[in-house]
Amino acid sequence: MRLEVAIKAAHRRTRQTYGAERLQRELAEDGIRVGICRIKRIKRKLGLRCKQKRKFKATTDSKHKLPVAENLLKQQFKVYEPNAVWVSDITYVPTDEGWLYLAGHKDLFTSEIVGYAMGERLTRNLVNQSLLQAVTTRSPEKGLLHHSDRGSQYCSHEYQGLLRQFGLEVSMSGSGNCFDNAPMESFWGILKQELINHRHYRT
């Protein structure tokens, strides 16, 4: 009975997003040792289910004739100092008034979001503002590797001009290969699963 109460409390505390494996680690931090299979049985008994992901909405428009950079990062995600590699991407948040788009820049060494911007429209200004915030707050040296997908926002002449202005080296994912930007994709997935998907946003 006490174990059921503990699992139910942990399920609520983790916003109903943790599976049995992560719940096991969560419970272990409270000094409760229990097997994964037993957690699964108790979850089924109590009717505890994880929040499901919402439908996918495309945010990358790669069907354009703008210049595309080579993939210099090549999935080498292990970095040994801050401000050496930033990855960037765009995602979306559903609201009652429509989609809210969110652009972000992440430092691969610190795993911190160093810049972000939100807007009602999926435009190049969104990534421009995110980049400007990152550069303003972090003041990176020239030569930092900036990696993104091949979306028109990142390939735009205006955005590429900003990258050149700040002396950032440009890298882009291969065509249709989301694994080339896995750290940023992973961050969005966790953000949605643990914070966005089980909440209702009016605006």
From TrEMBL:
Q: Tell me the ranges covered by the Integrase catalytic domain, including all copies.
A: 78-203
Organism, scientific name: marine sediment metagenome
What InterPro entries has UniProt attached to this entry?
A: HTH-like_dom, Integrase_cat-core, RNaseH-like_sf, RNaseH_sf, Transpos_IS3, Transposase_IS3/IS150/IS904
Report the protein name in the record.
Integrase catalytic domain-containing protein
Which Pfam families does the record cross-reference, listed alphabetically?
A: HTH_21, rve
UniProt cross-references to NCBIfam families, sorted A to Z: transpos_IS3
Which GO molecular function, any one, fits this protein according to its record? Answer: nucleic acid binding
* PANTHER family with a match to the protein in the record: TRANSPOSASE INSF FOR INSERTION SEQUENCE IS3B-RELATED, TRANSPOSASE INSO FOR INSERTION SEQUENCE ELEMENT IS911B-RELATED
Which processes are annotated in GO (biological process)? DNA integration
